[in-house]
Amino acid sequence: MTQSRRVEKVAALIRKEMSHLLLNGLKDHRIQTTMISITDVEVSGDLQHCKIFVSIFGNSTQKNTVFSELEASQSFLKGELGRRLKMRRAPEVVFKLDRGMEKGIPVLDLLGQLENERKAKNTDFIENQEQL
Which of 24, 25, 43 is nearest to 79 (CA)? Predict the structure, then answer.
């Protein structure tokens, strides 16, 4: 489903303002000291609902704690978004945990192993060519 230009613009503004809010707007030290990345923002066509996908770096207990704090601050963040974006009605904010980074790390490890094996085979081939 393609989004209209206005919806895409609102999603970009929400992403920008939410990043500022997470850095400076919340007083919870657990959120401020944890590295949180907003990976994507999806806004409904009527601008009434907003899914914010976040990636939280840390162990599983830190992730769960920070994510529960984000969910607890949804109403505050909705109000702040409405004021900052000067919207008549701020969208309902829902946080979703993005686990894409976690899933990508094993793939990157495999690619690194393949690269090392390729280099080892390449050096073996060159050594064999020099002996001939």
Answer: 25
